[in-house]
Amino acid sequence: MQVYTYRPDAAKMLLGLVFSGLGAVFMALQALTDHKAILIDGLIYLAPGQATTFRWVVAGLCAILSGAALLALGMALFSDHRILVGDEAIDMPKSPFSPQMATIPYRTIRSTRLTTVRVRGREYRFLKLATAKGTVTVNEAKLPDAEAFEAVSRAIDAGMKRAQSAPLVSQTRPIPTAPQAPSRPANPNAPRTFGRRT
Known about the structure:
It is built from three helices and nine strands; from the N terminus they run E-H-E-E-H-E-E-E-E-E-E-H. By secondary structure, the chain is of the alpha+beta class.
């Protein structure tokens, strides 16, 4: 069985927390002190009141990102989530905030799909497993490195092939027979007949 840690990178989450927090503070100060109109990309003109509202919206979005980064940082520091890759199934956390593990047998995986998201020149890969109970996603960013993600992907693919090629074991059950009625005991008081009837 192969075991991989499965949690966010603490350094990246800390960096995201710092940048989003500074962005929220900066935009909030701008909204409080700067009441001038702004022109976005030379196309969108915002009057002073609209510009202030826009700055508050951006500050709020940065604050939300800060909260998400803080939660992710806590998971990176205190979570013990892991992915266990076995011969018959893969075990992974039920949810980002749940300590419980979910066992996914390879025979229940109907298909897999690799999705790549590009953000500022960087690629983030997600392996989606379609099962009978729903879709489960393996996030590359939570694994130690790209090699671990590829190893997990290969193990899942090999497990699915083994499950598909495994022979089906037929189970035969005995055919139930109808119960027989119990024989009635002979009546000792019944008259006895001898000889041949005419």
